């Protein structure tokens, strides 16, 4: 009997290699990253059994098992407690696991392991990393600026991001164009709170030139971003020194000063125009007094 079992095992092994080795294949592992804190996340593990029978699907985070699916068990799904992991067992299956309201501590390396039934218990595995981010509650703030600049002035401003994890990346723009790297002044990150949320500060300093004004204005913009899940900006528009406006009289023509030759010429013209009227009145009065 022992010899029969021995030969049967040899035959199974020969059949396994003649069939081209493993017939169980892991087709695709989907672990989204980055994901936003407090969102639900769906992890997917797609495999091809070929002629095999599924024995189990197991999920691990950083080497610790937190979900197991065994079709022949009742119920087939089983959850193991792990910090930062909350499995929605009602929406999970042999090919997918749903994590509810992920936390910063949910970040880590996730591995899917698929095994076939006896006698070979073929096993395939694959892993991916997932990063959970905490987004800022407010957009970037610009401080230190003035409402008006003129050529030759020095601009000194700071952009401060909201608290997040990881820290937001900051970028300065001048009139829609990226600021020259030599204008940038990076500051140390500020870490606060129990969760270690981070604040980024980036300074901008440069001497104002004519080219910095577009139609008399200069626009300073700060953009904060985190991976592909967050992008916010803040922009301030500052004025250049405006040229003083010409007076209304000057805009209509030059006015000669009082007592000038122009005034005397005008006055003389006025007296000449007045004399004919005086002569006509005197003649009328003479005719009335001495009628013919």
Structure, described:
There is one protein chain. The chain is 17% helix and 39% strand. It is built from 3 helices and 21 strands. The chain has helices spanning 2-18, 248-252, 261-289; strands at residues 25-30, 35-36, 41-48, 54-61, 64-69, 77-79, 96-99, 108-116, 123-130, 132-133, 141-143, 148-149, 154-160, 169-174, 177-178, 184-186, 190-192, 197-199, 201-207, 217-226, 230-240. The longest helix has 29 residues, at 261-289. The chain starts with a helix and ends with a helix. The relative contact order is 0.11.
Q: Which spans of ≥5 residues are poorly predicted at pLDDT below 50?
A: 1-20, 246-278
Q: What share of residues is helical?
A: 10-25%
Order of helices and strands: HEEEEEEEEEEEEEEEEEEEEEHH
Give the overall silhouette.
elongated
Main-sheet strand order equals 6-5-4-8-9
Q: Could you describe the largest sheet, including whether it forms a barrel?
A: 5 strands, antiparallel
Strands, count: 21
How much of the residues is beta strand, in percent? 35-45%
How far from one another are the termini? 176 Å
- Helix/strand structural class: alpha+beta
Mean pLDDT: 83
Tell me the Rg in angstroms: 43 Å
Observed structural traits:
disordered N terminus; 292 residues; alpha+beta; 3 helices
Brief summary:
The chain has 292 residues and is an alpha+beta fold.
Walk me through the topology:
Layout: H1 2-18, E1 25-30, E2 35-36, E3 41-48, E4 54-61, E5 64-69, E6 77-79, E7 96-99, E8 108-116, E9 123-130, E10 132-133, E11 141-143, E12 148-149, E13 154-160, E14 169-174, E15 177-178, E16 184-186, E17 190-192, E18 197-199, E19 201-207, E20 217-226, E21 230-240, H2 248-252, H3 261-289
Parallel strand pairs: 2-10, 12-21
Antiparallel strand pairs: 1-3, 3-7, 4-5, 4-8, 5-6, 8-9, 11-13, 13-19, 14-15, 14-20, 16-19, 17-18, 20-21
